[in-house]
What we know:
This protein has helices at residues 127-144, 180-196, 200-211, 252-273, 323-326, 335-343, 350-356, and strands spanning 14-18, 23-27, 76-79, 109-113, 150-157, 169-175, 215-218, 222-225, 236-240, 279-284, 303-308, 310-313, 316-317, 329-331. The protein has 357 residues and is α+β, with helices and mostly antiparallel strands. It has a nine-stranded antiparallel beta sheet, with helices on both faces. Strands 1-2-14 form a three-stranded mixed beta sheet. It is globular, with a radius of gyration of 21 Å.
Amino acid sequence: MMESSQFDPLDHQHVRYNPLRGDWVLVSPHRLKRPWKGKVEKKEDKEVPRHDPKNPLSPRATRGSGKVNPDYESTFVFDNDFPAMLPDVPSPGPPSHPLLRSEAARGTCRVMCFHPRSDLTLPLMSVAEIRSVVDEWAKQTEELGQTFTWVQVFENKGELMGCSNPHPHCQIWTSSFLPNEPSLEDCSQKKHVSDYGKPMLVEYAQLETERKERIVIENDCWLVVVPYWATWPYETLLMPKRHILRLPDLTDKERDALSDIMKRLLIKYDNLFECSFPYSMGWHGAPTGPAARNADYSHWQLHAHYYPCLLRSATVKKFMVGYEMLAQSQRDLTAEQAADKLRSLPDVHYKLREEIH
């Protein structure tokens, strides 16, 4: 088949390779020309009380297990009352058939509250308060990483991401095994070093810094981009500019800079559709546990993924269904267009702008 015109990445469909996962995403920018693009409208944020004694995450509240929270004033971490994994359970027996395999899975699940107030989210917290969150993430990773192979810090924000409790919090799950996503990243990063001699995301951060096409924000220590291979419309990748393996390895300066850039990014997210922007985010760093003490994980680079679901407005989300579930991921908006949109947004939170006026 003869090509009828010169390729234009902003007009012609193409596939982009995700080197972290080793798969591809279909990009269809011409679909943005469809007559119907979805109504862009503000969504009324629900009023959340500053303190709700009935909210199980609030200070002094009684949780479903009957345990009472302390009167905490900063971050607060506790063992999940209904965990997905427990540290001490029997192992399955040998498989009865090669197609019916199961193996042992042990771990822990913790909940971490960011702040005693229920009406705040990270973009509305101070940089100093976010620094307390960063320090606790590092502390938990250090502690739990002594025992477990993987420590997954993640936040589900908003009802659209399945989070029914508005109190600012995240979860920390650990496991005796390396889960699927970090396992893919471990293999791909190891292969990249073997093939090219540099850690993949160290090289990628340098490349994005030079080209500046997909940068959303940056500071002396950190870089936020919409990755070239992004799947979700406004997905971002947060990376340090120095080679760092895990959260506990961050210096004081890098923790301060991380707190600052997180606040700036999340303000831009909220300003995009002037709503409390829903997303799932999580940290990926080098594996931990006893086996990691003598292993070489220099191919790893610490990074955080932000996966927001909103597509066109505060009420229109991107669904991963049909072709995405049965064939491969697909997006309309290019990574470059998404980065340009996020980059152009104000640095002052829309709620604070309304208060000023």
